[in-house]
Amino acid sequence: MSDVVFTTTTTTTTTTTLAPTWDLVEATIAENFVRYLDSLGNLPGGQIILRYIKSSYKNDPIRSLFELALFIFALNYFLSSKKKENKSELVKFSQREIDELCDEWVPEPLIKELSDLEKWQMYSIPTIEGHNGSHVTINNKKVVNLASSDFLNLNESESVKEAAKSTISNTGVGACGPPNFYGTQDVHVRLEEDIAKYLDGENSILYGQDFVTAGSVIPAFLKRGDLCVVDSGVNFAIQKALIVSRCNIEWYDHNDMDHLEEILTEIKPVMDKQRPIRRRFIVTEGLFANSGDVVNLPRIIELKNKFKYRLFLDETLSIGVLGATGKGVVEHYGVPREEISITIGSMAMSFASSGGFCVGANPMVLHQRIQSIAYVFSASLPPYAAKVASQAIKEITSNLNADGSSVIVSQLQKKVTFAYEKLVSLSKSSKFFEVASGPHSPIIHLALNTQYREELNLPTLYGSPVFLSTGKPSKFLNEFDDYYNIESFLLQKVIDYVLDHSSTLISRSKLILEHENLPVLAPRLQIYINNGVTTEELSRLVQILPIAFNEVLKNVDSELKLISLNSEIGNYKPHYINY
């Protein structure tokens, strides 16, 4: 019992002894600190510091001292060297040793080296000598050019050439800066007005490169949490633009309106509950670059109005091609431009120029001028390119038929119909090819016959099977595919045969499978119809194509023979390439 009392007493005594000691220390520190602070008032500006301490910290010297210590620590931290090296461990090399190390250094390649099965792709590209138009020279041989996207053949128009020459004489060849700084000239303003008027839009905005137009417009309006319902057949530029925006993406089957309505119906309850309300877009093309068919625009407009979505439309290929005056898929269906929130397109196709554009309401265009990355940071469109595009629009709209349709657009549409109907008729009796595009596309797609593909065990789509099973793109890029490579090689041999026997240059789809997250269509031959060729030249092509397919594919009648072509691919060197 006495032990317990002693311990308690001792503890109490210790506590009461320490308390006055700490109070004494604190009082001493405070007294000395206050004295030093008072002396600070004698320095210039010292009274301001003292007044700040008293008003902000209630004249608390301990708190002020602690803050002073933190300030000194921070000052020392930021002013001192971030990396203190031990100089004794540094090795000094002689000049000879430095030279030897430089000689031994082998840098990593910027791109992966091409394999023997990929090099043929590079060899297959012909070199055009001189002027590029509807008729070109390849290896000193005059050929018909059906591989050019200058559908209206305005590249050979004398008035267009003169517009380019006069502008270059006055302004040079570059705008020398982004549009918002000193890159905008009078020709850019006039072109924006011309495009807006031509396409029945309130306003328009120009981009220096057509490929980056989608990649700048979409991220300017969409961010995380926003939703895009996208056609799975859209082009590569739109796919990458959607990835950059980081919005949520729902894919619907290519041009399948029933599937689109099904998706919109399923996600409607979720979207209606979101607060704040997120932006919602349907994204599609007017004339699909990968497949050559036209979007069902009236049905999409009906669905976007029903479910309250905005519509983003890429008219890169349809401008100058569809409609009585070439105003695109909107004119083709007789739909008001106001139904489309955002329309983008390229001036490198029917306008025989370069760069891209976006058309829409005034607020949408003005927002891009301060928010769109390619507009703010990239160089403006060269002035002569802007003048050429304005002149191209003038050529389209000034020469009209009695019914109000454009003369040159009507000429193109007649030639497209002529070639399309001839090829469809021939494909019915051919074992090897079929027409895969729609009747309105100036790029006629020819694919290997479906039954023939089944005999060779070739798939309809190449690439990631993840999308086919889940409807979502793979997180990884597609891998190299032997069948895709061989099929492309067979089509290249058809191209070479046509070039040799009819002096006509055609092309093929050149998607790089390894760059795609989505599955891609099987390779196709592509015939680019333009106003510079005659119906006789198109007839000559139509006659030679079945022969070319037969000569190239007559011995390829099994999957085994298909695979054996790998040995031939490694030795491919066409005669029109100079080595």
Per-chain topology:
Layout: H1 2-40, H2 46-57, H3 61-79, H4 95-104, H5 119-123, E1 128-129, E2 135-138, E3 141-145, H6 158-171, H7 179-183, H8 186-198, E4 203-207, H9 211-221, E5 227-231, H10 236-245, E6 248-252, H11 257-273, E7 280-285, H12 297-307, E8 310-314, H13 329-333, E9 342-346, E10 356-360, H14 362-371, H15 373-377, H16 383-398, H17 407-427, E11 433-435, E12 443-448, H18 450-455, E13 461-462, H19 465-470, H20 482-502, E14 504-505, E15 507-508, E16 520-521, E17 525-528, H21 535-553, H22 559-563, H23 566-569
Helix pairs in contact: 6-16, 8-16, 9-10, 11-12, 17-21, 20-21
Please, could you describe this protein's structure?
The structure is a single chain. The protein has helices spanning 2-40, 46-57, 61-79, 95-104, 119-123, 158-171, 179-183, 186-198, 211-221, 236-245, 257-273, 297-307, 329-333, 362-371, 373-377, 383-398, 407-427, 450-455, 465-470, 482-502, 535-553, 559-563, 566-569; strands at 128-129, 135-138, 141-145, 203-207, 227-231, 248-252, 280-285, 310-314, 342-346, 356-360, 433-435, 443-448, 461-462, 504-505, 507-508, 520-521, 525-528. By secondary structure, the chain is of the alpha/beta class. The chain folds into two domains: 119-145 and 404-569, Alpha-Beta Complex (Aspartate Aminotransferase, domain 1), CATH 3.90.1150; 158-398, Type I PLP-dependent aspartate aminotransferase-like (Major domain) (Aspartate Aminotransferase, domain 2, 3-Layer(aba) Sandwich), CATH 3.40.640.10. The protein has a seven-stranded mixed sheet with strand order 4-10-9-8-7-5-6, with helices on both faces. The radius of gyration is 35 Å and the shape is globular.
